[in-house]
Amino acid sequence: MSESIQQLILDTLDTQGSIADTRTLVVPGTSHAATSHDAQLAILGALNSLLSREMVTYETNEVISHALTAEGAQIANEGSHEARVWSVLPLKGQGEPINPGQLKKEVGDETAKVGQGRAFKNGWIGKEGAGLVKLVMPTIFRTGNLSSGEKVLADLRKRKLIAQKKGQWFAVMKGANFSTSIAKPETDLTADMLTSGSWKTSTYKKYNFEAEGIPTSGGALHPLLKVREEIRNNFLEMGFCEMPTQSFVESGFWCFDALFVPQQHPARDLQDTFYLSDPSHSLPPQEAYYNRVKTVHVDGGFGSAGYRAPWQPEESSKLLLRTHTTASSAHMLYKLAAKCRGEDIEDDTKEFTHGAASTKDANDKTTAKVDGFRPAKLFSIDRVFRNETMDATHLAEFHQVEGVVADRNLTLADLIGFMRVFFSKMGIEQVRFKPAYNPYTEPSLEIFAFHPMLNKWVEVGNSGMFRPEMLEPMGFPKDVRVHGWGLSLERPTMIRYGINNIRTLVGHKTSIENIENSPAVMF
Ligand code: PHE
């Protein structure tokens, strides 16, 4: 097909010199001029193939045309909905009125519905008993301006009676290599051509040294992974060790109870937390620790009055998708305190506490021996889950960046100082702190950063000094303080890459092209 169109174009150019309008061509196999959209598309294909061989040049012209939609065509053939309703009804007083059910059968549901309303409005039909009749009026007339002014077209488009179609047609001229023969130039020199000698007379396709070639495809890191790597490096530079955080599923005990989150806390509700149905419950935690945690909740202890609220073992053992990585921090802190509890267990936290001992322990080797405490700086960056309504800035799962520092006699000033260094490493120099509340930290601070691009203060994290009600049941000595903080990985990533809808950062709406093109470092 394409070849015969190509031949037609070349022959027409040969006899006429040029083709002013390709809509005048009569495509082989048809008997009429190529006015349709499809015919012009086929012509375009042929033109492009000839253009690549410089046999022709062409100019593109656009036309806008209108075509009737199915409904429009029906109205054009059978009359408007209201006219069809009118025409099937008997004239008032001259026949049995038609009831609405019957009318539907006669003219179809759509016409009965739309047509009745309009015919009533126009005063063409009326009611007689339970049925409909046409009012005395011998004929109805076509209304409306039959010219195709833009206003009329717009109205018909709005009523979906016509649809706009964009069309193209072309003006064609001879190209530098014009000839009426469409023999393709050779792209390869073959052994056959050499033996037969046809290579001498063949024409060859020119090499295109300008061609850019196919872009090589390669993997690309997602922006979240790039920012994660950068933050991970910041932590490592500051002497932190990465915590294992592979357990997405936790028990209520580790996610909440161990953190002194009361069993009645709203964060534990079904609306906020995803609970597992199978298996739905965890094995019991170590009994002595479980009992200490339970006691500090119900009766208090370690200088605390406790919540004095009922305790349900059931709440403790429920399995859930962790709502924060602080659940993993709690596991690590509990392990870190093993020696303090006097447990002679294989110390698998050693690799996480390779940092120097605290100044106090370094000076006083006996303390370390006596209570077994070793300071630690730990971090994690991993996924958490919350039963959130999704919107432009919230998904039901996201990543938390979390750090904890355990040492003797840390103060709030240490936490604030740490925060300033940590955020300045992320390029955030201006930070402010606001008192806040977490069940597991006291005092607690929300962290705000000034965002120069947004020109406002935005909340970037949450932090605090872990409460004795959490640390002492684990077995930490009284002078050990642990501070911690958490922030989302998505927020700094979105700010960094100028993404304002989280659904374009993760999920099926993500643009792979943007991911491939986004730079690794953006300060
Ligand atoms: N878990 C807190 C959150 O989800 C962050 C945090 C971690 C706060 C550690 C204080 C200490 O927002």
Automatic annotation (TrEMBL):
It is an enzyme of class 6 (ligase). The keyword Protein biosynthesis applies. It comes from the Eukaryota. One of its GO terms (biological process) is phenylalanyl-tRNA aminoacylation. The keyword Ligase applies. Residues 375-519 form the Aminoacyl-transfer RNA synthetases class-II family profile domain. PROSITE patterns: AA_TRNA_LIGASE_II (PS50862). Its EC number is 6.1.1.20. Keywords: Aminoacyl-tRNA synthetase, ATP-binding, Ligase, Nucleotide-binding, Protein biosynthesis. This is phenylalanine--tRNA ligase. It comes from Ephemerocybe angulata.
